[in-house]
Every structure is written in structure tokens, then in C-alpha cells.
Amino acid sequence: MLTNKRLIAAHFWLAFIVFGAALVLGAWQMFVRSPLNTWHFNPEFYYRSVTAHGSAMGYVFPTLIAMGFGYAITEASLAKALVGRRWAWAGFFLVAIGAVVAMIPVSLGLASVLYTFYPPMVGNPFYYIGVVMVVVGSWIWVALMVINFVIWKRDNPGKPVPLAMYANVAGCLLWGWTAVGAALEILFLILPVALGLKSTIDAGLARVFFSWTLHAIVYFWLIPTYIAYYTIFPRAIGGRLYSDAMARISFIMFVVVAMPIGVHHLFADPQVGAGFKFMHSVFTGLVALPTLLTVFTICASAEIASRLRGGRGAFGWIGALPWSNPIMLATALSLVMLGFGGAGGLINMSYQLDATVHNTQWITGHFHLIFGGAIVIMYFAIAYDLWPHLTGRALDSFGMMCTQLWLWFIGMIVTTFPWHYVGILGMPRRMAYYDYANPAISPQALSVTMSAIGGFILLLSGLLFLLVLIRGQFGARGEAGAYRFAVPLHMPARIPLALNSFGLWLALMVGLTVVNYGFPIAQLMALNETSVPAVYVGAGR
Amino acid sequence: MSDQPLFSVRNPWFGISVGVTAAIAVLSAVAGLIWLPLAQPDLKLAGVWDAICSAAGVPRAAVQEASIKPDFKTSNVVMTSEMLTKADQVSIGRGATLAQRCAICHGPQGVSDAHSPNLAGQFAAVTYKELNDFKTGARVSVVMSPFAAAMSDQDMKDVAAYYAFLPRVPSNSLDTGRPAPAVVVTGAPMRNIPPCGSCHGDIDNKAGSPWLGGQSAVYIKAQIEAFASGARRNDISEQMRNIARQMTAEEIDQVAHYYEAQP
Fold this sequence. Notes:
With 541 residues, chain A is mainly α. Chain A has one domain: Cytochrome c oxidase-like, subunit I domain (Cytochrome C Oxidase, Chain A, Up-down Bundle). Chain A contains 16 helices and four strands. In chain A, helix 1 (5-32) packs antiparallel against helix 2 (43-78). In chain B, strand 1 and strand 2 form a beta hairpin. Chain B has a two-stranded antiparallel sheet with strand order 1-2. Chain B contains eleven helices and two strands, in the order H-H-H-H-H-H-H-H-E-E-H-H-H. Chain B is mainly α and 263 residues long. The interface between A and B is large, with 54 and 43 residues.
């Protein structure tokens, strides 16, 4: 039963408002850098827009979804009201105010540093302060989730923690630890320079700290999606989860190996040794395991549901699935995008293969397919599933929902496949302008035009999504009943301590961080003369 | 099984997970830090320890070969974006006195029609850098080098502060309606030419790049040509020489006249 509905709804609404605004910017960016637009604007606006789009989509939107969904999971799965309601609101307002504080200098052109804010580029200090506020707001959520988890375990000794809550806390712990890298970077390296106390910065060390956050943040975005796969999808299609233990092991593997792998973002950087790059590459490969486990478990769960509905044959059961159900559709489309995106990811994580696509549009295509595609489409599904419970009104525009999900899928494929292709042709990412009249670049014009059209399809789908939610606020009143999660095929009465707690996995996570990051960070901190003059963005204006 | 303490070798979850994780870490470390570096003949490693240090990224002394020194002086000024942006009144006043000797070419108010640079309102860091380069010999001019040779570091800062203090005066050829040439707005990416405006104003200003608005077209053209031919080479990291070499004669002409017409 959800008691703090306003708290949860506030998180989701703010998340989707931010998402809508950033989506408009994204579509505009696709347009201005495509051959559809004749060059007539200040390229600085493009970088402003990319910074705003990336910061909103990367930091604010998924964080709010994870927080809102986390509160919903806590109340629904533990069947008790959230402990720390006031703190939760404080966290929400910190995120909201932080987002505004960060976006003001970005809109003024004082912090066009892109959402990765790589030094030696340094922007207005308020941008970084805003980002820190968002992170601190989310840390309040991390603390609340852990506190609620611990209180429930104390009150229910020996009982297995519900899977949804266990996975939710796994995501919290992963985020709590992974956000430390960027926090250290901002507080100790960037802010002193942004505030004018120093004029040089150790760009290499800053990038290593950021890589600590930059890759695992993707898994933080991914965890709500995986929770939806495991605990919403089987229930929504009238089936059961194939294996509770397999699900827990997947989330545990994310906690342990998602973090000490970020250096694969720095394969082209000189400040990290080749040996450590190789080690990070190996562990990046390991992250494919929990995803493969998940794909197996979810497909098995779908088969169970289909056979319960009368599906037959080796493949005939696929046709018997409830395809008009938005959750079914969203999950299937999400898994397809995850498959393509994951395959591309295996190329990125390979030390040698990465060299052919590093910093090209391939990378932009990759993370839009995984995050914008596979992950965000499940955020839509979560919202559709949760909305009647938050509003107390029916959400029954199923045709619109399915249209919206198909449009999102088609839009994302049309956007990202040509992006991957032009990346292989060598098109660099993060440029406001390409001279398509040039014979060397003109073969890319058609692909870039296609991906811009994909961007407009995504914009249309996003607007349709908001329309469905708004209609949901005015639908017919009706009690949706208690919010339930999927039940496993075999409900565990007792489970091993290791699958019901996090101590061991936290120890392994921190241990692996020390092994994989300890020496590169210690060495960069000990080396002299590694700082370079900061390049102040927007200075002199 | 679940009754056993978690952090105990008797708990199989502990033993297996720690064992597997440690084994993967050790194997990847052995492969990444020892095997792969030793398998690369180009690295010329002295042994296992050398391989580990190399792969861990410990800085190693470069191969001792005599580096090729240029046969001319290079600029030794380090530019930062905050450099010389806060001048005090005393410095400006001293600069005004010192600048009297510059007035014959650069005008009493920092503006002249002599096709020498108009210095009124120029960034202090820019004027300072050029004076410094004239003094060290990184930039050579029959007229300017003797002047700069006698100036102290403080003199150069003061003169630069004074000219930065003077208001910019629009040139006689002011024509703000003139369309900007493509190379100013977009550069020419395939020839590695960034937009002129991304450093010299209009779009953005980068440390050390002069404000070009209202400068004599003759002067601008002469300097781009000097960069292209290599006669002038005090640009840090050879950035202007690389750009100027790629510019067509027509582009140079367009740029020179465009900037002359700007405020």
C-alpha cells in the first residue's frame, strides 16, 4: 500500500517535466547539426544546449525516477509507511533546487562544459554546486533506503527481504559509492579552480575520478529498469518470476563489478597505465554476465506466463504473449534495444576495438540506445504501471500507450543506428557543425538526416507519453488496490544470508575499487607537475 | 547454510565469491601487467618488474636522444585566461607615460592610420605577450625590437595595462552590416581551420588572441602572410602558422577587410 503518494508522484512528475524539456533540446540539437539546417547560428548555443540536455537527462531525470520508484518499492514491498518522510522531501527539494542552480549558469552560457565537465574546461561554480546538490539530495535517498531496509530486517529476523527492496537497496549502495568519484573531483579539484582560488588543475586525475562515477552511473540508471523486468513484468503479463535467487545474484553482480571498470572511458588517455586499462576491460566484460542472466530469467518468466495462457511449441508460445499489454510491449522492445546496445558496448569495452570508435558518434549512438532506449522505455512502463496507484484514477488509454512505446522504439532505432554507422565512418561527436558540402563528409549527410528524423519521432513519442500521464490525472476514479510485485515460481521461505544482506558484496565492491583504482589515483596524486592551466568557459564575456 | 556467519571461510558463499573475484583480479593483473607488456617487442622491457612498472603507468625516462631544437627563439610567455585582467591605477598611469614613445606609430590615443596595430582597448595580456616576444627575439621587427629590448617586465605590463584601459575607437572603415566570411564563422573543418571568431571575439575569446575589430586590413593581411610563410613564428604551439598556411589568398583578403570594418 502506498501511503506517501504525493512524495512519489512529485518525484515522477518533476522527472518527466525535466525529461520533456531536455527532449526538446535534444531534438533541436539533432536538427541544427544535420544537413536539414543551413548554418546560421552561434555554435556556443549548441554546446549550451548539449550541456543542459546531458545534465538534465543524465543527472536529474534518472535520479528522480530511481528515488521516486525507490520510495514506492519501500512502501509497497515492505508493506509499511516510509521512515523519514520529511528527509525524503528535503532530498527532493535539494535535487529540484540543485537542478535550477546548475541550469542558470548553463543557460547564461557561463558553463558550457558538457555534462561530463572534463577539466581543464572550467565553468561557473554554480553549475558544479548545483550538480553536488542533486547528488547530495540523492544521498539522502540512499540513506533512507538503507535505514528502511535495516529497520525491516530487524523487525523481521530471518525472513527474506522482498526482491524489489533488495534490488532497490543494491542500486542505492552502488550509487552511494560510485557518486563519490565525481564528488571528490568536484570538491577537491574543480571547485577551487572554478571559485578562482587556483588557476591550474590536474586534468588527468580529475578524469580518473570522473570515470569512477561515469560508468557505474549507467548501472544506477539501469537498476530501476531491471527491477521492473524482474518484479513488474512477470506480474503484469499474468505469470511468475522464473527464479528469485537468480535475480538477487544479478543485482549482487552489479554491485560488485559495475564500479571498478570506469577506466574503459579513458582508453585514449595517457595518464593511466595500459595494464590497468586491461584490468578494467576484463571487469567491464564481466558486467555482461548479470545482463545475460537477466535476459535468460526474463525470457523464461515470459515463457511461463505464455504457457499458463495456453502458448505451445518451441517458439509458438511467443505469439501467445499479451502483446497489447504496454508492459509486455515495453519489456520486449527494451530487451531488443538492450541486445543491440549491449553488443555495441562489448566493442567499446575492448581495448583495441575501442580505438576505431573512440569519441565518434558511435559512442553517442551507443549510450542513447542503452539509456534512452532500453532503460527509459522501462521508466515509461514503470510510470504506466504505477500511475493508477498514485492518482487513484484509471489509466486505460492502452492504444495510446502502445503507440507511444512503438514510436519511442522506432525513433530510437532510427536515431541511433545511423549514428553508429557515421561513427564507424569517423564522424566525431560533440561538434556543432559539419561541412556536408565537403566531399569527405558528404556521404554522412543521409545518415545524419535519418537520425535527425528519428529525433523528431522521439520528441513526438515523448509528448504522447506526457499526454497519457496528464490524461491519467483526469481519468475515472477507481481504487487500484494494493501495489504488488511479481511472485517467484518457487517462493523462498528461507534464503542464504549472502542473498539477503550486502556486507560481503560491499566489501568486495570497495576491495575491487582499491585494486583497480588505488594505484592509478595514488600515483597521479603523488606526481608533481601534472596540473595544467584551467580554460575558463565563458570567460571574457 | 544461512545460519553460518557470512564472513567465514566455512560459508561457501564467502569462499566462492571472494575466491572467484580474487582469481579474476589476479589473472587480469598478471595478463595486463606482465604477460601483455612482455609480449610486445617494441616496449624493450628489462624484465618482469620493468614490465609491471611500464604497464602500471609509472613515468619512465624517455629514450635519451638529442631533441631537435629549433634554430629560432620561441615564445616563453605562458598564457592564462585571467592573466593581467586586473590592472591598478598606478600601473595604468606609469604606462601612459611610457606609452608616449609609442605614440608616433600607434597614435597618442592608441589609434592611428599608419597601418600599425591600434592598441586602444587591446587585451593587456596580448600587448604584454607581443612586447615580451619582441624583447626575447621570438618575434622580430626592425622597428619594435629595439624599443622592447630596453623595457623591463614591469614596463611592459604597465604599457599593456594603459592600452587596455583606453577605450576602443571605431575605425574609419566601420561597416557593421558587412556579412562575416565563412572562415570567420565556421572555419573550414576539413582544412583544420577553426572559426576565427572562436578565438578572436565574435563567438569567444581565448587567452592571448588579440581583438581584431578595427585593425588595419593591411596589417592583418601582412601578419597572416607572415605566419603562412614562417617569417613570424611567436604563436604558441604553432596554431596561427597552421591556420594561415591552410588559408587561401582570397580568404586572407576577406578576413582582413572584415575585421577592419568591425567595431
